[in-house]
Specification:
The protein is of the alpha+beta class. 26% of the residues lie in helices and 35% in strands.
């Protein structure tokens, strides 16, 4: 399963972190209130996407936005690319969680 976020094809969205890989990449937290429409809630990058999403300190923020479903999508790539992609997606979507 895949989803296009910006100009990138991500794996997901996945409701369970077990579907994510412990690899370097970019993750996008998506929220839905029914139907097939997803909204970007957060964007981040990590050396190990699954571990980061599972243990994320911003999870309370994700849950406060009133979505009935939260899911994660991932794009696996090296450290240099993941930082560039994260920056690009943050500028495009201005997610409500993860202000830096």
């Amino acid at each position: 399963m895949s989803i296009q976020i910006g100009n990138y094809n991500f794996e997901g969205p996945f409701s369970h972190t077990s579907a994510l890989h412990p690899l370097s990449g970019v993750y996008v937290i998506l929220g839905s209130s029914g139907g097939s429409s997803w909204k970007v809630v957060d964007v981040g990058e990590s050396a190990q996407v699954r571990d980061r999403v599972e243990n994320h300190d911003r999870r309370p923020c994700w849950q406060r936005h009133g979505h009935t479903e939260l899911a994660a999508a991932a794009l696996y790539t090296d450290a240099q690319q993941r930082m560039l992609i994260e920056r690009s997606l943050r500028l495009t979507y201005n997610p409500p969680c993860g202000q830096r």
